[in-house]
Amino acid sequence: MNTELVEAIDMLEREKEISRETLFEAIESSLLIACRNNFGKADNIHITMDRNTCEYEVYAEKTVVESVEDKSLEISLEDAKEINPDAVIGDTVKIDIDSKEFGRIATQNAKNAILQKIREEERNSVFDRFSSLTRDVVTGIVQRVNGRNISINLGKADAILSEKEQVRGEILRPTDRVKVYILDVRNTPKGPRISVSRTHPELVKKLFEAEVAEVRDGTVEIKSISREAGSRTKIAVYSNDPDVDAVGACVGMNGNRVNAVVSELGGEKIDIVNWDENPALFIENALSPSQVISVIVDPDEKTAKVVVPNMQLSLAIGKEGQNARLAARLTGYKIDIKSEDQAKDAPGFRMEDYLTDEYDDEYEEEYEEGGYTEEGEYIEGEGYTEEAGYSEGEYEEEAASEDMSPEQSEGDEEES
After folding, report:
1. Main-chain phi, psi angles of 250, to 5 degrees
2. Phi-psi region of 301 (alpha: psi -120 to 50; beta: other; left: phi over 0)
3. What is the structure's pLDDT at 397?
4. φ, ψ dihedrals at 137, nearest 5°
5. For the chain: N or C, fewer Cβ within 10 A?
6. What is the DSSP letter of 167?
7. Measured between alpha carbons, how far is 68 from 353 in angstroms, rounded to an integer?
8. Long-range contacts of 349-357, Cβ-Cβ distance < 8 Å, separation of 24 or more
9. Which residues contact 146 (CB under 8 A, 6 or more apart)?
10. Superfamily of domain 133-197
């Protein structure tokens, strides 16, 4: 048994993830190359190699002729009888070749052929491995900064984190461990080129799958994600099990699950809301943490008109419009947000169109008494008060309960 060769093949198979059969084929091919360099041709040369012991045999098949014209392909009858006494003209005899007699150049070429084959198979192995991980998350180590790009070592290969896939404001230093989302893997002459991202919305989804067992097994589905990397993300979740709270499962006890994802994303804020097949309810949830009075949707135009309390307008819109923008991306609807006062002043506004059921029960009787006309005009002193939505009687009763006159209460309300 060729013990050293067996150990070398075992090591290459383990470390380079190259199959044994591929390595045996590489050795056989290199021996053929060495024979071709040594004898000028190798059309009639054959190699057999035992896959268990790694013992190999190299031999040439030559035709028995009366007069030899090509020594590499033919053999005289006299010489053939020394190998096989029963040989006759036209027979084929097998002549062993000692590979140890090959010259230095032939040996070097054989070695280079084996190394080249190993490199090719290693690249193919890496390509196949990471191709199967496309659209998945892996952990890497920051290797170096190449201009505006960052090289991430993934173990068997390096990936490129381009500038546009980096989170704005996030500083990555060599040796930092980060999770990245594999966007694309391409095979090139220099090896696999792997592109990764830290900004892709699917990165958030995969991180939740890793942290939340209910998401991983399909009990809780992440229906949609909208993200502004490095700042804020909204995700809509739905539970296929009525006994499982989708939002609670993603948040975890004391927020440990969502906090793990937030930590991995460098402190990025994450809003988790319930998905609903009713677009109006879904939009209301998506605008969290703002309260919503009413939502009127147009499914055909994919638009929605939303009314929020006066004091909640800035919260609903968010800083620089971020909350409304993320909610629109999350739901797929173009959302027009107005405060109560803005909605009342809008052309064609009708209070009953905008009141949700919880407001209808409180205001139905008072509205019949007066308040707003069908054209949207406010009638002072009837139905609703413009400030709070109470009838005059209710407003006086509340003021009296606080030991105030209606006039004092109104003054305090205006100051607030």
Report:
1. -75, -30
2. alpha
3. 39
4. -110, 135
5. C
6. P
7. 106
8. 349/376, 350/374, 350/376, 351/376, 351/384, 353/294, 353/296, 354/293, 354/294, 354/296, 354/307, 355/293, 355/294, 356/293, 356/294
9. none
10. Nucleic acid-binding proteins (2.40.50.140)
pLDDT tens track for 374-407: 444 444 433 333 333 333 333 333 333 444 333 4
Q: Are 157 and 146 in contact (CB under 8 A)?
A: no
User: Looking at the whole model, is its pTM more than 0.85?
Assistant: no
Q: What are the φ/ψ torsions at residue 142 (nearest 5 degrees)?
A: -60, 120
> Could you tell me which CATH class the domain 201-292+314-330 is placed in?
alpha beta
* Residues in CB range of 168: below 8 A, 6 or more apart: 229, 230
Query: What was the pLDDT predicted at 349?
Result: 52
Q: Do domains 133-197 and 201-292+314-330 have the same CATH topology?
A: no
* Beta partners for residue 228, in sequence order: 232
Domain chopping of the chain, boundaries: 3-128, 133-197, 201-292+314-330, 351-415
DSSP state string for 66-97: SS-S-TTTEEEHHHHHHH-TT--TT-EEEEE-
Architecture of domain 3-128: 2-Layer Sandwich (3.30)
Which are the contacts of 412, defined by CB distance < 8 A and separation ≥ 6?
Answer: 404
Count the Cβ atoms, other than its own, within 10 Å of residue 76: 16
Q: Which residues pair with 269 in a beta bridge?
A: 232
Task: Identify the segments of the chain with pLDDT beneath 50.
Answer: 354-416
User: How does DSSP assign 98-161, residue by residue?
Assistant: -GGGS-HHHHHHHHHHHHHHHHHHHHHHHHHHHHTTTTSEEEEEEEEEETTEEEEE-SSSEEEE
Residue 395 CA, distance from chain mean position: 56
Half-sphere exposure of 303 (CA within 13 A, CB side): 4
Instruction: Encode pLDDT of 366-376 as tens digits.
Output: 333 333 444 44
